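Example 9 (inverse folding). The structure is encoded as follows.
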């Protein structure tokens, strides 16, 4: 088939790799003049790692990333709020977004796709026989299949006649990838919470592209979107002072943060697209089911979308394949959309009641056998609605 893909992020590149390897003619459209990653780091859960393995890229990701064996959340006084480890034999993989982008991009180019840079898609014409139109007026198509992988802030899906719900979360986060010269923050995703209005985190990332071989971490600070400009105007030293009042132990990490430009500000949407397929157009990745980062599932869901779509298209009948793809993704995606929406105010809100309940109940409740299993499998990226465990097709 002749397949077009809009967006050169995790979903777009993973889908391009899988489909091109299966013999399809793939064209990827990227709006920037140079394809590049956005953000500092992410956590690949066991489900996403398995999808990456299906693409033949897990070993390379392991060489770049850092294993995360547990989550450790505390209040500013050091009292434990959250303690959650992975099941035996499993772990998270913290990885720099640049490292993940590079290994996906290399595989994409090696798969023989046609990469159209500086092609900002303005519209999709006729979903039954989709053609893309750039902002410069260039038309390419029709395609046998078109994948919209333009991310959570995608505007193209609004013109497809789908039911789209994509409000922006009130809270975002500033991020930076910083050296951890002594490796003191390896092995765990560590967070500190002051009520629900303040969340600070350190995620091990392994190596960072173009930054030597030493270990790095992703530092993040939760921040309301409406407060971002005031915080930026106050300057980097004021931000560091606020962080250190809550978590003095990360002073060695913050030495690598010297100017405001070292930080990136990320915003998130609660995206629901129903259905995610119209005609011969499929919405994939964050464009179809963007979430907040509280459960660390965005990249996992995108990778799984890509490998399952390629799996379904191997059956031959493309119409039946798209129906099967939609059926295979429905319960899994629905669980994480709902879970992310429910968990976000627990860690990012002004509610004192929610924060008190979290600090009082989450740690002791997580020790209960049933709750522990639910939390572990949720973290691992394998829950689905209404009950049960999601598995990638053989």
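The amino acid assigned to each position is listed next.
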């Amino acid at each position: 088939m002749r397949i077009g893909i809009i967006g050169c992020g995790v979903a777009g590149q993973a889908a391009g790799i899988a489909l091109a390897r299966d013999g399809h003619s793939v064209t990827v459209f990227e709006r920037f003049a140079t394809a590049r990653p956005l953000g500092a780091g992410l956590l690949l859960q066991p489900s996403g790692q398995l999808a990456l393995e299906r693409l033949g890229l897990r070993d390379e990701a392991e060489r770049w990333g850092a294993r995360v064996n547990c989550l450790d959340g505390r209040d500013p006084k050091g009292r434990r709020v959250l303690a959650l480890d992975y099941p035996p034999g499993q772990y998270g993989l913290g990885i720099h977004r640049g490292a993940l982008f590079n290994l996906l991009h290399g595989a994409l180019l090696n798969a023989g796709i046609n990469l159209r840079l500086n092609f900002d898609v303005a519209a999709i014409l006729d979903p039954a026989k989709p053609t893309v139109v750039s902002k410069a007026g260039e038309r390419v198509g029709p395609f046998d299949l078109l994948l919209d992988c333009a991310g959570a802030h995608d505007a193209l899906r609004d013109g497809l006649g789908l039911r789209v719900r994509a409000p922006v979360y009130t809270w975002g986060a500033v991020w930076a990838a910083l050296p951890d010269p002594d490796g003191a923050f390896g092995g765990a995703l560590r967070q500190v919470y002051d009520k629900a209005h303040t969340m600070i985190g350190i995620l091990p990332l392994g190596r960072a592209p173009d930054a030597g071989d030493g270990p790095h971490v992703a530092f993040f600070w939760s921040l309301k979107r409406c407060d971002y400009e005031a915080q930026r105007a106050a300057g980097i030293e004021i931000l560091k002072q606020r962080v250190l009042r809550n978590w003095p132990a990360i002073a060695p990490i913050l030495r690598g943060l010297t100017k405001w430009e070292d930080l990136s500000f990320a915003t998130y949407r609660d995206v629901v697209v129903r259905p995610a397929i119209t005609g011969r157009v499929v919405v994939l990745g964050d464009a179809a089911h963007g979430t907040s980062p509280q459960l660390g599932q965005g990249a996992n869901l995108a990778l799984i979308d890509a490998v399952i779509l390629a799996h379904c298209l191997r059956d031959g009948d493309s119409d039946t394949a798209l129906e099967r793809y939609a059926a295979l993704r429905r319960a899994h995606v629905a669980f994480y959309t709902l879970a992310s929406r429910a968990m976000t105010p627990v860690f990012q809100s002004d509610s004192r009641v929610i924060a008190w309940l979290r600090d009082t109940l989450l740690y002791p409740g997580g020790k209960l056998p049933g709750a522990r299993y639910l939390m572990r499998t949720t973290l691992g990226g394998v829950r689905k609605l209404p009950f049960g465990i999601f598995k990638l097709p053989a």
